[in-house]
Structures are given as C-alpha cells and as structure tokens.
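Researcher: Sequence recovery benchmark, item below. Answer with residues only.
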C-alpha cells in the first residue's frame, strides 16, 4: 500500500472512531436554536441549549476528549467570550474557559470557545479575538512544545513569530511582544481537563465545622450534616470578573446579603446582594459581598450554627466563622441546569489547583 494511501486510510479510521465514540453534535434548528445530541445518552434525546449558531457554520462536531482548558504559567485559563473578547480568567469553572482543541493538519489546531462559539484568532496587529468563521486562516495555530509546556504560534503570522499569550494581569499579550518566546511565561500553556459541569456543585464548610445551607423558606444557616441536600451549592460565574452567585440547588434560592448585613435566600438572581467574590486566606477561602465590599462584609456562620451578620465580619479578618474550605458534593437528586455540551455526567475530575491563590485579590 503506497504511503499516501496508508495515511488516508489511517485518517479515515481515526475519524470513524471519533464519530462512534462520545461525539457531541450541535445541530441548528429552523427556529435558530442550537440543539445538542449526545450519542452516549441512553435515549439519544435532544435537549435545548441556550447557545446560538455562530458564523455560517450550522454543524460543529467535536469529541469530549477535545474539551480542554489552556492554563498558562501565570495561573490564568484562556477564555473566549461571546462578544469576541479574549482574556485570562482565574476561575477554573468559568464556562468561557472551556475550549475544544481541534486538529486541522499535522501540528496545526483550531481553538473553539465552546460557550461562545467563537474561534481563537489573531489580527494583523497581533491582537487576539474571537472569530465566528472557522474558515479564516487567522484561526489556525501551530502547536509546539517547550520543555513540558505547549506554545501556540499563529500560522498566518508565523513568519513574524507571533504567539498566543496571557500577561500577569490576565489580559492577552500582543503577538508583537512574543517575537522572542524564550523565557516568557505568558505563552507557555498546559492542557487540563475541564470540570464535568460548567457550574461546579460543592459544599463549603467553615472552621466551626458547619456547612452553609439554604432552605426553601429563605433561611440561611449552618448544618453539620454533609448529606443535607440544602447544603449543595452551585457556583455561577458573573460580572464583574471574579464575581459569582451561590445558588442553593435544593431550595432554588441564591445567597444574598441586604443593606443591614443580614444573609438570606433570594429568589431573584439579578438582585445586587447576590454577588460575592472569593478570596484566599492561607488554605481557606472567604466570601466577600460585592455590594458591601467597601464595608468588608463577608459570609459567616457562628459557633451556634446561625449565620453571622455581615457587620460583624469585617474585623478581625481572620475569624473562624468566615473561613471556609471546599468539598465536592454528593450526587444531588435535583436536576441541575446543564445547558453545556458535556453529555452524560461522569465522576468529578480532580485537576483544579486549589492551592493557587487568586492573584487579583
């Protein structure tokens, strides 16, 4: 068999295998919605997805094995947003930081932002952006190895030596500044597996031994029963960057703090009191209310198990009541909002660098 025919036969075999194993299909319907078909689901049923059809591509297949995170040496995950912006994010669970790295030729890849539907691309000025049209040559990159890391060199501007990079502040690095890549941490990336779910479900336990729990009547308090379904929390990323909402899965309410520092369960997720930021304190984490950040009000649970008023959490800053640790939750029986093409649920993947300190705080 000639070499060319052998290569074609091998490529066809690989393509056939990928088609038959864990394929996630995006199919655009007549009404403009994108639906997901997961070949591994028991009924191969169709589920609605909030994502939109981007560019002129109505069918975008990729395998689950192609879903990755590009994690660079400054501690940021490459994220591609729907408005075309590209930057680094610290949250490992940010859905915009999940990409599909797809091979288009030997040593050449395209990087698709799964949540946004945009492809990573580079302009003639060296700026990174999200491009909806995958036929553009600016969306192709050469993948190269540098020791134990990977670099991504723009194919269109390879003669200029322009690479993908993320700076220390999380902003993307202009390709013109990556001409001499040696020693630049900004352009060195590792491939990591993303969370099984784009919004991680977990428990948070404070140093008094209480898990934060939200009840259907709006009460927020501590419980020492780690199997209590009211303590299963979903963390949803939001604006401003680094902020998120804490959603009680069983109660279907969001943790909120009012202007008097009282903590309660809020139905309206858009309420200004539902936004929190996570800060690292040694091996623990604290949760600062964004609306009351200038006052230093945090989430806290007292020794009695009652929630602590925000007014009493600003000093001292190292209170046991406000210092929490993370723990992955048990499998909740309540259906969790998916809307992300990960197909069937599989056991959580322990890849997150939980000891990485949030550099923005």
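Model:
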């Amino acid at each position: 068999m000639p070499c060319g025919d052998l290569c074609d036969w091998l490529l066809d075999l690989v393509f056939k295998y990928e088609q038959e194993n864990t394929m996630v299909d995006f199919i655009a319907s007549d009404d403009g919605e994108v639906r997901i078909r997961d070949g591994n689901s028991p009924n191969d049923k169709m589920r609605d997805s909030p994502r939109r059809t981007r560019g002129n591509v109505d069918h975008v297949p990729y395998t689950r094995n192609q879903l990755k995170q590009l994690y660079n040496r400054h501690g940021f995950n490459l994220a591609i947003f729907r408005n075309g912006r590209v930057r680094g994010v610290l949250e490992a669970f940010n859905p915009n930081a999940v990409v599909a790295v797809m091979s288009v030729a030997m040593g050449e890849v395209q990087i698709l932002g799964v949540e946004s539907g945009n492809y990573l691309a580079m302009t003639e000025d060296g700026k990174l952006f999200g491009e909806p049209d995958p036929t553009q040559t600016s969306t192709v990159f050469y993948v190269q190895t540098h020791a134990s890391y990977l670099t991504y060199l723009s194919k269109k501007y390879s003669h200029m030596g322009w690479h993908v990079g993320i700076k220390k502040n999380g902003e993307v690095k202009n390709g013109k500044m990556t001409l001499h890549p040696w020693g630049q941490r900004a352009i060195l990336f590792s491939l990591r597996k993303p969370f099984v779910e784009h919004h991680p479900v977990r428990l948070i336990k404070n140093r008094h031994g209480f898990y934060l729990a939200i009840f259907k009547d709006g009460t927020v308090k501590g419980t020492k029963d780690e199997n209590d379904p009211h303590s299963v929390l979903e963390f949803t990323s939001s604006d401003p960057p680094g902020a998120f909402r804490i959603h009680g899965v069983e109660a279907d309410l969001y943790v909120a703090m009012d202007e008097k520092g009282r903590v309660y369960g809020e139905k309206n997720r858009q309420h200004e009191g539902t936004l929190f930021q996570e800060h690292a304190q040694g091996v623990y984490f604290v949760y600062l209310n964004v609306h009351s950040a200038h006052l230093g009000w945090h989430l806290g649970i007292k020794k009695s198990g009652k929630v602590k008023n925000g007014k009493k959490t600003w000093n001292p800053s190292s209170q046991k009541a406000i210092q929490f640790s993370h723990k992955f939750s048990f499998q909740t029986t309540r259906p969790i909002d998916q809307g992300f093409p990960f197909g069937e649920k599989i056991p959580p993947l322990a890849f997150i660098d939980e000891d990485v300190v949030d550099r923005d705080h």
